[in-house]
Amino acid sequence: SQQGEEDPQALSIQEGENATMNCSYKTSINNLQWYRQNSGRGLVHLILIRSNEREKHSGRLRVTLDTSKKSSSLLITASRAADTASYFCATEKTSYDKVIFGPGTSLSVIP
Amino acid sequence: KAGVTQTPRYLIKTRGQQVTLSCSPISGHRSVSWYQQTPGQGLQFLFEYFSETQRNKGNFPGRFSGRQFSNSRSEMNVSTLELGDSALYLCASSLLAGGTKNEQFFGPGTRLTVL
């Protein structure tokens, strides 16, 4: 079964709005990553947050991690049409464990 | 630095055949992981190789195998192909072993269609 589950499955917003995606996981993790996949650039790493971190920023991206609730959120601010893609969270339970991807959130940003 | 390359990009095979996919990691990266992506199952981990040794394996039948060479290039093989093996096969390389603590860089994938 999937370790991470993204929510919602699909999201459609207007350009300029913020987009929030959530990821819940079942067991304790070492780290959590977010990836983006679109037809043009394939699967691209966005941000990594370690289990002892609560929040991380990268440009227009903000990721939070709540280990007590076993959940993470990805916020994209001031969205652009180019942000249209599928977003995946990926977790690993220990430092050398396999990486498990969630089913993803499909984001559509309408110009 | 050149990115991760995968060959071939597209492949059409028939049931019962076997296929070999190739992945060249980023120069200096020693870890290569393989994933299968399908609309129904999403991204599923196949296996990870580090310094020619398989470190982790996903829940796939023995028809799926792989190897890594001394130059870190990796191949995966699927024997006795089934219709359900139609998928995008992604290869990812990272500097060290292990997953999220080392950023993975993905190749463009090989789209396999089994008829």
CA radius of gyration of chain B: 13 Å
As a percent range, the share of strand residues of chain B is over 45%
Shape of chain A: globular
What does the largest sheet of chain A look like? 6 strands, mixed
Helix content of chain A: under 10%
Helix run count of chain A: 0
How many separate helices of chain B? Answer: 0
Report Rg of chain A. Answer: 13 Å
Secondary structure category of chain A? mainly beta
This entry's quaternary arrangement is: heterodimer
> Helix content range of the residues of chain B, please?
under 10%
Largest sheet of chain B: 7 strands, mixed
**Strands of chain A, count:** 11
Low-confidence stretches of chain A: none
User: Which stretches of chain B are low in confidence, meaning pLDDT under 50 for 5 or more residues running?
Assistant: none
Key features of this structure:
heterodimer; A: about 110 residues; mainly beta; six-stranded mixed β-sheet; five-stranded antiparallel β-sheet; 11 strands; about 0% helix; B: about 120 residues; seven-stranded mixed β-sheet; four-stranded antiparallel β-sheet; about 50% strand; globular
Structure, explained:
The complex is a heterodimer of chains A (111) and B (115). With 111 residues, chain A is mainly beta. Chain A has strands at residues 4-7, 10-14, 19-25, 31-38, 42-50, 55-58, 61-66, 71-76, 85-92, 100-101, 105-110. In chain A, the strands form 2 sheets. In chain A, strands 2, 4, 5, 9, 10 and 11 form a 6-stranded mixed sheet that branches. Chain A has a 5-stranded antiparallel sheet with strand order 1-3-8-7-6, with no helix packed on it. In chain A, 35% of the residues are buried. The mean pLDDT of chain A is 91. Chain B has strands at residues 5-7, 10-13, 19-24, 31-38, 42-50, 53-57, 64-68, 74-78, 87-94, 105-106, 110-114. Chain B is mainly β and 115 residues long. Chain B is built from no helices and 11 strands. Classes of the chains: A mainly beta (111), B mainly beta (115). Chains A and B meet through strand 4, strand 5, strand 9 and strand 10 of A and strand 5, strand 6 and strand 10 of B.
